Amino acid sequence: MAFSETYPKIRYFEQEDVLHLVITDEPEADSVEISPDITAELNGQGELIGVEIINASLFLRNSILESVQGKLLNLTKS
Fold it and tell me: What is the spatial distance between Cα 13 and Cα 59, in angstroms, rounded to a whole number?
């Protein structure tokens, strides 16, 4: 897998609420559904070249809330 100084790139498609992380510009040969809204894109050697998140705003909001709430709970237990 060849990395470039211009990668990774993040693209957000607002109307579709899709976040696309592009790791390399290699062609996609396959994809694997990680969860209902997350797909890993793979090259011909099975290496990760991109990630697509559908319903990205909801996913990011929930991920951030879970992370912050977990850290706050740990802080208040100390």
Answer: 14
